Amino acid sequence: MHCPFCRHSDSRVIDSRTSDDGLSIRRRRQCPECGGRFTTTETASLNVIKRSGVMEPFSREKVISGVRKACQGRPVTEGDLAVLAQRVEEAVRQTGVSQLDANEIGLAILGPLRELDEVAYLRFASVYQAFDSLEDFECSIRDLRADRAKSAAASDEG
């Protein structure tokens, strides 16, 4: 880390803190050459490898825009979409890898979207998983109904 004042190539960390969002670290530094103090923010990069092989930084906005299409006409708010995108980002960051396939992002979206809105989930899954027949839809609906029945049975027992 170069000093922004004298361009000295070294600095000493005086204080480190996790930022409010927990995704970055704020460090207070001091230059041993000129004594100047400055702040740096460090974040772990997370890159997505697209099907074409192109790599780009992960974007919550891209998650939101992709899911927003599936949620058109559904009772889903922008706040709901923001929370979903945050959950997806947290899930993919917890894998501990710095690069992941776009396919893995799609898989990470399916779970939270299923909890948010089943119709939007079916819409997203039909495109993402390339449904090509009515049987694909029927199978997915059957799974949703089975999960709903399990949840109802579990809540009746509790």
Automatic annotation (TrEMBL):
Coiled coil: none annotated. InterPro entries: ATP-cone_dom, NrdR-like_N, RNR_NrdR-like. It comes from the Bacteria. GO terms for molecular function: ATP binding; DNA binding; zinc ion binding. Keywords: ATP-binding, DNA-binding, Metal-binding, Nucleotide-binding, Repressor, Transcription, Transcription regulation, Zinc, Zinc-finger. It holds the Pfam family ATP-cone. A zinc finger (unnamed) spans 3-34. Residues 46-136 form the ATP-cone domain. Its cofactor is Zn(2+). One of its GO terms (biological process) is negative regulation of DNA-templated transcription. Binds 1 zinc ion. HAMAP family: NrdR. Negatively regulates transcription of bacterial ribonucleotide reductase nrd genes and operons by binding to NrdR-boxes. Belongs to the NrdR family. This is Transcriptional repressor NrdR. It comes from Microbacterium keratanolyticum. The lineage of its organism: Bacteria, Bacillati, Actinomycetota, Actinomycetes, Micrococcales. The gene is nrdR.
